[in-house]
Amino acid sequence: MKDEKPTEIVIISGKGGTGKTSLTAAFASLTGKCVLADCDVDAADLHLIVNPEVVEVHEFWSGHSAVIKADRCNGCGVCAEYCRFDAVIPRDGRFWIDELSCEGCGLCVRLCPEEAVDFIPRLCGHWMISETSFGPMVHAQLGIGAENSGRLVSVVRKQAREIARRRAIPLVLVDGPPGIGCPVISSVTGADLVVVVVEPTLSGCHDMERVIGLAKHFRIPALVCLNRWDINEKMAGSIEKKARELGAPVVGRIPYNPAFTRAQLTGEPVVRLDGRLAVIIESIWQEIERAGGEHGVSWK
């Protein structure tokens, strides 16, 4: 019903390149309709598969940058002396700020005896609302060298939830960033279910343990999906065993298939390119629905 909280499922992985974005698009094509949220704002690529039509663009302002007013700078060099980030550059007897190096700490603003340093809001990127064939999508692009990706992720998720409420769409599918850092924490906090995409390598097993540990910390049920499991069947078995020990059921295995690459090149979900793969991924989605139901998570 309208204004009810939608179910949020976050697709994450311990590292990039495991196939989580491809699976997010594939799951979206199987749901019929959902709200998509690309929270990998540092390197967003879900748009390459779902071909969104951008309808709104918004600026993302966060933090501040120092700017030296040349007409007031007396060249004393106090700002350069105390800048820990080497962001203050001498030029023609005066100083200027390298915007990419400035961390926005504001120390130079406080120390300048001539009050020659302004502290202005920083434009860190943009976030967009788009339409796709699977439903609305919220995505973003963080600026070059910009910080506060975790805050931008929070903006994307908030907008996705609001759209889902307004349009009475019961499900938000989130393509999360890799790793366990601030952007990932912002992606999973308050979510209803996490699906961890793992590849069968030793580092993949280690990454999975960290991500499942993060989900447990926030008391979010976690499920595991093995991608390219057949490139190392022994390791795949070990990962499945470890996942069960950690209380994260394995919802399915996906074999190596070059259709994933073709899907990115052609800009469409992988389930539309390979019938056998479509059957496997649909079965995995059904397992996610079943496992979610066991945890009281439903979007039907």
TrEMBL record:
Entries under InterPro entries matching the protein: 4Fe4S_Fe-S-bd (IPR017896), 4Fe4S_Fe_S_CS (IPR017900), CobQ/CobB/MinD/ParA_Nub-bd_dom (IPR002586), P-loop_NTPase (IPR027417)
Keywords: Iron, Iron-sulfur, Metal-binding
CDD domains recorded: SIMIBI_bact_arch
Disulfide bond listed as a keyword: no
Pfam families documented for this protein: CbiA, Fer4
GO function term, MF aspect, one: iron-sulfur cluster binding
Domain 4Fe-4S ferredoxin-type: 64-92, 93-122
Protein name (record): MinD superfamily P-loop ATPase, contains an inserted ferredoxin domain
